[in-house]
Design brief:
36% of the residues are buried. With 306 residues, this protein is α+β, with helices and mostly antiparallel strands. Helix 2 runs parallel beside helix 8 and helix 5 packs parallel to helix 6. The strands form two sheets. An eight-stranded mixed beta sheet has the order 1-5-6-11-10-9-8-7, sandwiched between helices. Strands 2-4-3 form a three-stranded antiparallel beta sheet, with no helix packed on it.
């Protein structure tokens, strides 16, 4: 608890010293995340109907950005259903921030500086590697260009437990390979930043002139600590990506989730300001800072003990 309090104080000092405004947004909302990859806690209320515990504060923070808030940060609880394990608890703490006038490269530098201050034992500096180069170096395949049969063959060779499984979703297959065949070989005492993701994994990041997503993820060893985007700013593109995720949900037999009309309405009044955003898993950072082996060691009340 003392370690948590000390690190939270450092986070606030870091951002206020850089001119960010601390904000607070709801953890309970009338719409959930569009992302078909996220399992969400859905609730029912006699007045409001369907409600969702938020998987991140992204949408509401973007509404503040659209209203002219300037650069903002938040320390908040987030919720993801079914995420239990050494590095997962269904309720967890996120540090999320958006730098107005930033691109993702500038935000990577800022995020790595913050993580380095919170975990002084890390080796200084960070290794930047593109998504494509990481796969080429460690697996000898091109995740952008190679056909599915080569990716499937690689998975069956590197991960024998996948033999006999149907691996017909390209992005899910790339996620599997990244988690179990690429990230485990990242240096364990320093930061690795993966950049330039396939456009199909852009989420709400902008697509650059090379046709890749201006998205990044920060790892310490195989453990993902943060992810971020040079944010897409156009309302029409948000609506299109929300619709695409809705189609994925239907194809996978997942419950439908309404588009976040409040965010789309805010963007209808003017595009999001040029900005980059990052979400940092605070509990994982605290684990590394305190040499904890399990997330339960840094939580006063893990969900299994509530």
């Amino acid at each position: 608890m003392r370690g948590r309090a000390a690190l939270l104080a450092q986070v606030r000092t870091f951002f206020t010293g850089r001119g960010y405004l601390e904000v607070e947004t709801p953890v309970l909302g009338r719409s959930g995340a569009a992302d078909a990859q996220l399992a969400q806690f859905a609730l029912s209320d006699p007045v409001y109907g369907s409600l969702y515990l938020q998987t991140s504060p992204e949408y509401t923070m973007k509404r503040l950005l659209a209203s002219g808030s300037g650069s903002i940060f938040q320390i908040t609880k987030a919720f993801r259903q079914g995420e239990v394990g050494r590095f997962h608890n269904p309720e967890f703490t996120l540090v999320e921030w958006y730098g107005v006038g930033y691109d993702h490269r500038r935000l990577i530098e800022e995020a790595c500086t913050l993580i380095g201050r919170l975990i002084p034992s890390l080796e200084p500096g960070a290794r930047l590697v593109s998504f494509r180069q990481a796969f080429r170096d460690l697996l000898g395949i091109d995740p952008i260009e190679d056909p599915m049969d080569l990716l499937q063959e690689c998975a069956h060779t590197r991960l024998p437990s996948t033999r006999g499984l149907v691996l017909d979703d390209r992005d899910a297959l790339l996620d599997l390979l990244m988690s179990h065949a690429v990230a485990p070989f990242f240096p364990s005492h320093g930061l690795t930043v993966i950049t330039d993701y396939p456009a199909s994994q852009a989420a709400l990041a902008r697509i650059n002139p090379q046709g890749l997503a201006d998205r990044f993820e920060i790892y310490c060893g195989a453990l993902e600590l943060a992810n971020g985007f040079h944010e897409e700013t156009r309302r029409d593109e948000y609506a299109a990506r929300f619709a695409a995720e809705a189609r994925k949900r239907r194809a996978r037999g997942l419950p439908a989730i309404a588009q976040n009309e409040h965010l789309l309405a805010a963007l209808a009044l003017g595009d999001l300001p040029d900005c980059a955003g990052c979400a940092l898993g605070f509990d994982r950072v605290l684990m590394l800072a305190t040499d904890a082996a399990h997330i339960n060691e840094v939580l006063a009340f893990p969900t299994e003990h509530t």
